[in-house]
Design brief:
heterodimer, A: 213 residues, mainly alpha, B: 223 residues, alpha+beta, 7-stranded antiparallel beta sheet, 9 strands
């Protein structure tokens, strides 16, 4: 019981839906602030398109599982909650997998094994456990939208930089004259770490200048 | 011990009810999505296969599926298994066949398509249809140009009796390829590239002699 009352005080601090939404997008951005779900962030952000597709897939799974977990929150006993959440998340990942296959074979090929790995993205489980299981469907939806878009935004930031520098292109459109020497390291895994570090630096500089509330 | 005693225990029936209920709901959702997307996925897969055939047999404009019945290749229907695809150019000249093969990779089953030209007695093209190999390492089998060059003229010539392949296709360590039937590996994708060599070796050993015997069937049965 003490845990529940603690949570209700925490939610009182952020009551408005806009605030809840902005929280995921900016103040508690899953990648730049919480540094969650690093595996797809580093691995599938080699082009802007892959990053967008991965971000959308993750956001969809996050949204749907948050809604379902929130709907069933009074039905799931706490002893089996993690197993139930994983079951729900895995279901939506499978659905996303079929949907992507139905959209494009090439896209499915380039995202490859990372679609199935959304199941173990700790961002999704953490939102289910920390938020959706304790809040109403409406609030959970807004939370998932904020967090999902925040994740998508971060992935896109990485993907865009890596594609522009690593392939000299943006969404497959060549940007630079032929003399441009691509930074091959940027599309390799190491480039993911460099770009993430650079974005974290930029993000923290911006955040530091913001007046603290 | 005290703490344990104060934790209220949930009726195990409730736990069971929750797990079974969620399991049934999730199962239903998955089945519905599967059924809903299947026709479109199959259509896209067929298109992708068609494009893959054009990749593994260069310079063709038409394909025709064949299946094996009593050791003779006949035109294949939609439901047939063990289908191979013959490719023809604009003039209707037979240019080669595309054969599907699969085998265990590092992560999962890898399925590939390769082109075979009976005139040259060579494998002339290679394409990965499906693989779940580790991104960045094992998936080099689809991208590494040096590796893909193995399959532009890989020797699968038959013995004088035409009953078997003279030299089985074998994978070798990177940089040690010295014979035209060897597949040069990839550093950092050792297991995956070796798997491709073995899949190709096994499949070609079994199918190439039969396909070679039937080469006149493909030449004559265009359209």
């Amino acid at each position: 019981m003490s845990r529940q009352s603690e949570d209700s005080t925490r939610t009182k601090l952020a009551p408005s839906p806009t605030d809840e939404f902005i929280k995921g997008l900016w103040r508690e951005n899953p990648v730049f602030v919480q540094v969650l779900g690093m595996c797809p962030v580093l691995a599938v952000s080699n082009t802007a398109l892959n990053a967008l597709a991965m971000g959308m897939a993750t956001a969809f799974v996050l949204l749907m599982s948050n809604i379902l977990v929130s709907l069933l929150r009074n039905f799931i006993p706490k002893e089996v909650r993690i197993a139930s959440y994983i079951l729900i998340i895995a279901t939506f990942v499978t659905i996303t997998d079929y949907a992507i296959q139905a959209i494009s074979v090439d896209l499915h090929k380039s995202l490859g094994a990372f679609i199935s790995l959304i199941v173990v993205n700790c961002l999704i489980l953490s939102r289910a456990e920390a938020f959706a299981s304790k809040n109403t469907v409406g609030k959970s939806t807004v939370d998932a939208l904020g967090m999902g878009l925040g994740f998508l935004f971060a992935l896109f930031c990485l993907g865009a930089v890596r594609e522009i520098l690593g392939s000299g292109a943006f969404f497959g459109i060549v940007l630079f004259p032929i003399e441009f020497q691509e930074w091959v390291v940027m599309i390799l895994p190491a480039g993911g770490f460099f770009t993430l570090a650079a974005w974290l630096l930029v993000f923290n500089l911006i955040k530091r200048k913001e007046p603290t509330s | 011990m005290k703490e344990q005693a104060t934790i209220p225990t949930t009726n195990s029936f409730h736990m069971l009810r929750a797990m079974v209920g969620i399991g049934a709901l999730c199962g239903l959702l998955i089945v519905l999505t599967y059924e809903g997307t299947l026709p479109r996925i199959e259509k896209l897969r067929a298109e992708a296969l068609q494009q893959a055939i054009f990749k593994v047999i260069p310079d063709i404009s038409k394909t025709q599926a064949f299946t094996l019945k009593d050791n003779v290749y006949v035109l294949a229907g939609e439901q047939d298994e063990n289908v191979i695809y013959a490719g023809y150019d604009d003039q209707g000249n037979f240019k080669g066949v595309a054969v599907k093969a699969s085998g265990q990779g590092y992560a999962d089953i890898i399925s590939i398509l390769y082109g075979y030209n009976p005139e040259k007695q060579q494998v002339i093209g290679f394409y990965v249809l499906e693989s779940k190999e580790t991104p960045g390492l094992g998936d080099k089998i689809e991208k590494d140009q040096n590796f893909l060059d193995n399959f532009s003229a890989l020797d699968v010539s038959l013995t004088d009796g035409l009953g078997a392949i003279r030299n089985r296709v074998v994978p070798v360590k990177k940089g040690t390829k010295s014979n035209p039937w060897e597949v040069d590996g990839i550093t950092g994708a050792t297991i995956s590239s070796r798997a491709i060599g073995n899949i190709l070796g096994k499949s070609s050993e079994k199918w190439i002699p039969i396909i070679y015997k039937n080469r006149e069937v493909f030449k004559n049965k265009k359209e």
